[in-house]
Amino acid sequence: CVSLFFAIFxxxxxxxxxxxxxxxxxxxxxxxxxxxxxxxLQVFLTLLFLICGQFFTxxxxxxxxxxxxxxxxxxQYIMDPTKVFYTLxxxxxxxxxxxxxxxxxxxxxxxxxxxxxxLDHFEPSLIFRFLI
Length: 132
Known about the structure:
By secondary structure, the protein is mostly helical. Helix content is 82%, strand content 0%. The chain is built from five helices and no strands. Helix 1 (2-19) packs antiparallel against helix 4 (88-121). The longest helix has 34 residues, at 88-121. The chain is elongated.
């Protein structure tokens, strides 16, 4: 859920920069402070799913973690105020995809949580009796 808010925050700042509501230096200062936390949180959660044995959820999170690690490896994770307008469209597109990914994953987490609560609370035979 926190990663979802990070993606929204960064996307809003990119849109504000495009419309001229915010200075490039100020935007880069605000966004660069959050990017490392967003990357490390995503990689930490992915490793946590692997350690806990949630392999399906781990496999769902691997592509975004790999993308973040690739950006760190190629040193593309820090936004430069002098070059931000050249990469603005690609950054907006990337963070829009990240936002959609986090939203879909959040819905999957809510579904999994609800499903596990239903299975723990009711016996399966009772559930099927009400469906018939």
